[in-house]
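Researcher: Please translate sequence to structure tokens.
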Amino acid sequence: MAQPKSKFDLKWKVIRKQSMQWWSLVAEHDLKKVDKADDKLNKFMTILQVKYGYTREQARVEINKQWAAFDRAQSTTNS
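Model: Translation complete:
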């Protein structure tokens, strides 16, 4: 039985488009690795850990912080 997609997986296409702006050390080849991963959040957090020296929790916090700011900006723009 297939696992339901995580919220991150559902938002991945949008996050992917913004990722190189949010994290300048993240490259297209990194994003392609995430594209292929079954657990996109896990793979992306690993990339941020390697590129920025984040702990697992720091990577999660940074992803959430960037997404929240992006989401707020989109909400303001669409209002």
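Researcher: Any highlights?
Model: Residues 56-78 form the longest helix (23 residues).
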